[in-house]
Predict the 3D structure of the following.
Amino acid sequence: MGEKAVAELKGQVRGEVILPGDERYSEARKVYNAMIDKRPAVIVRCTGVADVIAAVKAAHADGLEIAVRGGGHSVPGFGTADDALVVDLGRMKGIRVDPAARTVWAEGGCTWGDFNHATHAFGLATTGGIISTTGIAGLTLGGGIGYLTRGAGLSLDNLRSADVVLADGSFVTASEAENPDLFWALRGGGGNFGIVTNFEYRLHPIKNIVGGPMFFEVEDARDVMRAYDSYITNAPRELGAFFAWQIAPPLPFIPENRHGDTMCVLVVCWTGPPEQAKRVFAPLRDAAPVVAEHVGPMPYPALNSAFDGLVPPGLQHYWKAVFVKELTGEAIEAHMKHGPKVPVVNSTVHMYPINGAVHDVAPDATAFGHRDAKYASVVAGMWPDPTQNEANIRWVRDYYKALAPHSEEGGYINFAAGDDMNRVGANFGRNYDRLRTVKAKYDPHNVFRHNQNIALAA
Ligand SMILES: Cc1cc2nc3c(=O)[nH]c(=O)nc-3n(C[C@H](O)[C@H](O)[C@H](O)COP(=O)(O)OP(=O)(O)OC[C@H]3O[C@@H](n4cnc5c(N)ncnc54)[C@H](O)[C@@H]3O)c2cc1C
């Protein structure tokens, strides 16, 4: 960016304008995945909508590409790019709850930790991710899967409206009543259409839950998966539960002599009456002998941050994802072959149920194109040591290769790797053609390209 353009931009924004050579640059260019090493031309830490508009216009005037960053958790590192202008919303954390209307407005830089903290004060919540440091923006725009999904739907199913800065710097609100085509596309189309500065969500009366992890032996994982799969099909919707592989961390509730052993886990979250929890969990707890568990009553935000320690910023990340309609015997055998090889304590495989309320919504009502799947599964390679990249990436690829023949062609866009661009159409699924049309209308020059990028309709 030329000196004059930088001076103009600095005059137009209240947030920081950070350039290569600035002391803050090396910190500001970092995203969550330490494998991403990009050098943007300029990073604008916006403080409000006016800054976002100014940044978009400055990029346009200077011919710079734009990368948009909410919480920065994108595994392919879409929140940054070489030589681009980064619109960083991380300082935009305003939240307003209307408890009477069970509605919250949250700015695009909020994390789920920020969000849950604000809504919990009113005994309210909506579906968010399972880690509190993930951004609400990227997670919601791609889908939004978490503990509350079976009862409350995807995060995007709870979106009432969104304020958006479009590619030309203009500002619109999208809802069922205003710009409904844009509102449709935002709910599942990722960051392809504009920069969402404010999200309005529906809230649910959820305050305290009963939940936590149950650990089982690797040898019992087949039985655990079968019991889980059979129960989750029709289990009460107030039950959120996912299957995972996990090396036992050194936590006090796990016997010391088992720390470091590979196990499988069911993580549960019951939002119904607490006195029913034991009965509701029984078919899962009885799947096989439990080695260790830490299940009990707690505030909903506590469960939402319970596993943050396993995934601190600065790990290397490489993930692959599939949607699954039916967990077949062959798929279980693929899991049994590769799951026990999980290389490090941070890495995992999660099998999230997306039945229940997700299936109530018509498949074409929002852009999210895989409502007929039962699970969104992710093989999440996360490791601290960059010298181990090859071995960890190989584990993810081998696992994915084994699962793919027993899964849908597409995977959840928010769990996909950077080298998944050849699968973009399959990842968006049945709504891809309509997404292409809306993309051509709202972003005809593909200004918003650092994402699972939707090809413009011809
Ligand atoms: C540790 C970890 C845990 C996770 N857990 C879950 C989970 O439980 N459930 C789940 O569904 N997903 C989960 N995810 C995946 C998560 O949904 C994606 O990584 C998501 O993209 C993160 O959003 P973000 O805002 O933090 O990321 P960013 O990197 O900031 O952005 C991701 C994408 O969204 C775009 N974007 C960001 N902000 C905006 C905005 N305001 N307007 C328009 N576009 C924007 C970016 O350009 C980019 O393309 C997890 C990821 C990680 C790393």
